[in-house]
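quick one, 348 residues, struct below
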Amino acid sequence: MGRQRVTLQTIADRLGVSRTTVSNAFSRPDQLSEDLRNRVLGAARDLGYAGPDPAARTLRAGTAGAIGLLLPEALPYAFADPYASAFLRGVAHATEPHGLSLLLIPMPPGQLQDHAVRRAVVDGFCVHSMPADHPALDIALRRGVPVACSDGPELSDHPFVGVDDYAAGRMLAEHILASGRRRLGVVTFRVRDDPLDTDVDDIRIATAVHRSSGDRLRGILDVATAAGLSREDVRIREAALNVPDHGRSATAALLDGARRPDAIIALSDELAAGVVEELRARRVSVPADVAVSGWDDTDTARELDLTTVRQPGEEKGRIAAQWLLDGVRGPVRRLLPTELVVRGSTTV
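---
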């Protein structure tokens, strides 16, 4: 039998480190300590490994010289939404030094542009916040090029970077309930892609196709149940678009119900901005009458003195793009830390 081919994974297994660590020793030495890099290079020499296979690094050498970025919204959203813009900056920071282009491929609900994915001249796809059942995702996967996902979906055989949305949802709900609030309203971005103009029920959450919203809602509901709240004490409204106007409409529906909430948790800062607008229009005091929280910690949250969950959107984009640059494949999963940022919207 011939000698077994030595790969980055072979070296990683020998040292008990990740494949990315080995790759960084050759292509990004500044990411490692001198001692660790010397260990990797020493193991490579012992195994007869001369360096990464150029055929496995097409994104650096550039057959197409571009990365495709799949988005679940219309194109203007990528530039208008602060969190989406931060993610794009992260992707750009990783790809720009290598002279790569970004091809933005918007896929808003009900507008499948399958030809855009089939014909895209790209060396890989970065998938951002896509629903798990989106047909464009299946087309991208069947192209056979590297695919890396951020925020959703989580695929068993492709790299994923995100945060523990369930744990962060619990953290936020625990903070709200600790102040004595007992009637919760929640304004979420899409759970599924079919329009909904009524309260979100448990069946819809259980069948969520958007990972982030589903996990956050489950975390909030589990904390509410543990605190003795009934399901009727937690009303959830779904916004079709992650913009202030839709957050305001959802808030109006919550306030016009039989049990007005004394706290409203919005699952993005943009939705929370709409919540605050509607409360101010009705002369409802924040936080004395209704506490309000958001998610992301964008400039919007700081301008509104908004309690929120901070998550590293730019870092997610950089990591997902770097995986594509390194040709990383397989079930790599990385969860980045979140932080509860408490401001005046929840504290009297």
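The domain at 165-312 is CATH 3.40.50.2300 (Rossmann fold).
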